[in-house]
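Figure 2 data, in text form.
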Amino acid sequence: MTTTYAVLSEGLEKRYGDVHALRGLDLAVPEGTVCGVLGPNGAGKTTAVRVLTTLTAPDAGSARVAGHDVVREPTAVRRRIGVTGQYASVDGDLTGAENLRLFARLRRAPRARADELLERFGLDEAAGRPARTYSGGMRRRLDLAASLLVPPTVLFLDEPTTGLDPKSRNSIWDAVRGLASRGTTVLLTTQYLEEADQLADDIVLIEEGRAAHSGTPAQLKAMIGSYAEVVVADPSGLNAAAAVLDRLTGARPALDTEARTAGAVTTDRTLTLPRIVRELDAAGVLIVDASLRPPTLDEVFLRLTSREELLG
């Protein structure tokens, strides 16, 4: 069966003076899926979104979104996409209802669509209040609603939940899941690895302007093996526990003195939790907990990028 791609780019290049933001970026996002785009600060995530949404022209390479070339057919692309950027674009002096009705007029969408979205995103009771009185989560929901006035074929979400509390973040997650279930393709950049793990069908890890790794969350986790972690009873035993994990896994353990934990990634599929416990006991290390589990996306990110910095 032939896969149809909602977003397809080949060899995208983009420079800003001496900064080479994109260095041959290849992306292939199947229709009706959620693709999480991750990467360190300055990896090129936001530049990629700007190119794919026709806000910035690439210096080289090509890209098609919803079947249209982003350079030769920008108007056709814009008619088929929705975009929610890193910062809410709503007008704080207008009410929530006025904001959506204004955007509806600009997009030639019926007013009833604006009222429907206010209710869907739980903003109908606050619709008459100025948007500047909204919480951060409410403003993000209003911004997302504005991008959906004309149901998009492809929705670009550039760090949509940055700075939101867990409740507001979950409401955005529910909205994204609902859109994906109705067939909208979503390209999501995020600094929250848990967010990508929860929402994405596939993940692309961008590093230095290129797609360095890609796959499902499970496939990326399988690339680096398992994660062994122990919690020692006394901080004085932490170094001895680390030495045991170093010997068993062949990787230098990460230590957290406050939490009294030592943890290391292992690709040895024969290593078992009972063996780890026996080796710790033989070394005289008293532990209160031990685990051997699949890695989190945070651990995958740090291992694959080899850079100890947060996403951004």
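Caption note: Residues 307-312 have pLDDT under 50 and may be disordered.
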